[in-house]
Write a structure and sequence with these properties.
It contains 8 helices and no strands. With about 230 residues, the chain is an all-alpha fold. The protein is globular and about 55 Å long.
């Protein structure tokens, strides 16, 4: 039995949080899809200001490209998820959980691609671009993938009783990564702020629903998430 402070959120806490996240995702999606003028104006104002900064600070812009294209790239994050899944199978002998992690990551990628196609939001266009990106803008795949993978990693550490120092360090890395990848996408002018916010919200909802479903499904098998 794990210490009480390592217990995951109870169903009574998970449900309101899931509902709040789902509502936020739906509201933002409707605002973006309908091209709600106040949101569009705010998005434009923010990216214009950041683009001026990106042109004026080439060193910061280059660092942002390295971080977003290599360190926080979606494929880097998916590779990290594969490493986590392999570690779960190898060290914990839990093939089901390993597959579950990979399936969650794949589901997140599928959801973002479906929404990109459905919303079909154009990306910002610049006379002097500092970076380029393809396909539709909403939601940000970088932001959503980082949120999903980092969220799953933190859940695993909590679930299996990692030490406080390890969990604090992992939380710090996760926060920097999730916030950092969103900010680099904005700085490089390839996303609108609402794209990034949508990616964060959808990623958090994906993690919450996946971990809750896993806990409920494994409860009959004496899963650590399912105790009286």
């Amino acid at each position: 039995m794990y210490p009480a402070h390592l217990d995951p959120p109870s169903p009574s806490r998970r449900t309101p949080l899931s509902i709040a996240l789902a509502l936020a995702c739906v509201v933002l999606l409707l605002l973006v899809a309908s091209r709600w003028a106040p949101l569009m104006d705010l998005d434009s104002a923010v990216v214009r200001a950041l683009h001026r900064g990106a042109l004026a600070e080439p060193g910061v812009t280059h660092a942002s490209r390295v971080l977003t294209d290599w360190v926080w790239d979606p494929w880097t994050m998916r590779a990290l998820c594969a490493v986590l899944a392999a570690g779960v199978v190898w060290r914990l002998r839990d093939r089901v959980l390993g597959v579950w992690l990979l399936a969650t990551c794949a589901l997140g990628s599928l959801v973002q691609q479906i929404l990109k196609s459905a919303v079909d939001r154009p990306r910002p266009v610049w006379r002097v671009p500092v970076d380029s990106a393809h396909y539709a803008a909403y939601p940000s795949g970088h932001a959503m993938t980082a949120t999903v993978v980092c969220g799953l990693a933190l859940w695993l550490l909590r679930r299996y009783g990692a030490g406080t120092a390890v969990r604090v360090a992992a939380l710090a890395v996760a926060v920097v990564s999730v916030l950092g990848v969103g900010l680099t996408r904005l700085w490089l002018g390839v996303h609108w702020p609402s794209d990034v916010l949508g990616g964060w919200l959808l990623g958090a909802l994906t993690v919450l629903l996946s971990t809750a479903a896993y806990a409920k499904w494994r409860a009959p098998h004496q899963d650590p998430d399912a105790r009286p």
